[in-house]
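Reading a protein record of the kind used here takes only a little practice. To see the layout at work, look at the sequence and tokens printed below.
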Amino acid sequence: METATAPQRLTPGEINLENHPCFNRDVCHKVGRIHLPVAPQCNIQCNYCNRKFDCVNESRPGVTSTILSPGQALAYLDSIMDLRDDITVVGIAGPGDPFANPEATMETFRLVRAKYPEMILCLSTNGLGLTEAYVQELAELQVSHVTLTINAVDPAIGGQVYAWARQNKRIFRHEQAGALMIEHQMQALRWIKQYGMIAKVNSIIVPGVNDTHIPEIAKEVAAMGADLMNCIPLLPTADTAFADLPEPDAKMRFRVRTLCGEHVNQMTHCARCRADAIGRLSEPMTEEIQALIQRSARLPINPQESRPYVAVATREGMLVNRHLGETMVFTVYGVDPEDEEEFTIVGTRKAPPTGGRDDRWKELAETLHDCRAVLVAASGSTPKKVLTDAGIQVIEMEGLIEFGLRHLFHGETLPPNLQRSFQGCGKGLTCGGDGMGCG
């Protein structure tokens, strides 16, 4: 019996760019792609988008079952490559926007390119945060395919599609948001083509808003060198401004694509991929793969590090019920060495004295150096960033400590009713660490 041999690793110059199932319909049933969900934040709010996590049965952009750090994403990719031999593309497509999360996006691409030189790398972005410096590095990493979602080239129409757009901490609304998006998207497309990448433009067909306008988008992007266009029918989604609009019928889809096809080649086999899509187009995520991504998500942020513990902000030792900034003593848990299904308290850690601003959180990161995560009722954005950068995941929840520990150590889903997403209190969005809660 012959022993299977591992496929020969290719150099980046030998990447077969034809093996991208989204850009080449002829291979979409032969090869697969994997999207790594490392970009949770977004810098715009589209009126058709609801970024809801933990919904494995929904297939649409903006949805993922979990968020991974770059290191966790590489570990997940490794496990997928051990399992399958048909993955030719690694992409980043959210669930927010890759360039609202540029550090995680670029680090993920660096890690993947270093380990898998033959892999096609691609990304999907709204273009707002895409600078020339990022485009230049993407080209150096041989990210070959870039998708831009462009829904208007008229600011008035764009203002109907976008609820808001954020740049440099300033919020733009209505027609101003439309104008901002168009300016940055057109510039992003110029850079993408200037640096030699393949460009696809996605446009969402929104009946009564931009359905008659999309051919104008096609005309403009074609003149700038776009290689392919994907006119995606609106998928009305609950809790969005466009929830009650009708989904475009076959006649509207045909008309839009035919008119756009006069200017640029059309993609017609889109599967509305999730931010954690895996496999061939329209292939559902199996329980085995779902277990793999959840297992990867509970690794330390930097998987090569040994971080066996979890710190908890608790008042009485049963519930996660303290804000990060008001916690003076953290209880530290680990897996019981005699029973891996149980947890044990391994000690307590005193938080650094209040005050000190960012230095306090750096000291806390050192105090919790062997903890992979901290469970808190809430956390300001500044301490969360400092701890995350130090390799400590900040989980916001309220409820029984055991649920949080089972989520982190055993990969069990954290019940939605326990999850929290703190946006800030008082007047600020950062925490001064004054012992009065996060503000």
Observations:
- Residues 15 and 118 are 5 Å apart (CA to CA).
